[in-house]
């Protein structure tokens, strides 16, 4: 009797679990693919642990909600910040004074920023697309390609030769509010685009990218670098020469998840690494059924705290070699850094968990 009872109980439990699993898959918002990442690089050499970001100073403290990206005005007097309240805010670099400069329409959330060929501010807003912004005025340059509206216009940069604008549509499936679902799904839903200001047309340069994020054109305009956040790597797309149109690996197996990227006057690149890496979490993410569990509201809350609040930035050469690595290992000074922008021997940092811009003197490092 006991054996039969145990059998019946086991059968009921198994059937209930199977039914729960089918319901979970049916209701899941994602079609998960195993995420296979290399083992994180060892914390040695360039990647040796440090606390360099503890030395930063807060600029405009309390006045800049979640500054995703930054750009310096052509005359070098002002810093513009893309904030989560919809405003692009202007910061006077000498005085630190902040003012609301231009509001993105509707419930817009400006993300990537860049300067146009003539010094105008350009921005990406996930659903509005590619925007040209002057004080108090926002003009849409592009909001679709091949008749397909953007879901997640993210980051951009501009060719200094002809003003062409290169930008990413991070996901053709998920919008800004569901970015974690795209990364969790692990499928190449993103693409890289080009806007030609002379014709007003937008073309697709590359598809099949894993949450393409930051973009930066090289100093000689021969290639661009695009960050693939969910693959912890950056690719190089050649814009000139015999390899024009070829997309190849620029740097792989980064010590964090890359977000925005900015070129320096020297021709190197600063990459903001929005979070650290966890070998345990990355191992778990190789199992699609676990991803279904994380795609629930409860699972998403867990993911929000699973990745550490630490901050990381990395400078790489124009050949993709790591040069300088700086971090705040416990998020004491700043966390979840999305961008690092160098200007006059200072590094300016924006992030998703800050209400200020971090300013770090590179002479002190």
Automatic annotation (TrEMBL):
Domain Strictosidine synthase conserved region: 154-241
Keyword S-adenosyl-L-methionine: no
Stored SUPFAM superfamilies: Calcium-dependent phosphotriesterase
UniProt keyword Glycoprotein present: yes
InterPro entries hit by this protein: 6-blade_b-propeller_TolB-like, Strictosidine_synth_cons-reg
Cellular component GO terms held in the UniProt record: endomembrane system; vacuole
Coiled coil spans: none
Name by which UniProt lists this protein: Strictosidine synthase conserved region domain-containing protein
Species: Adiantum capillus-veneris (Maidenhair fern)
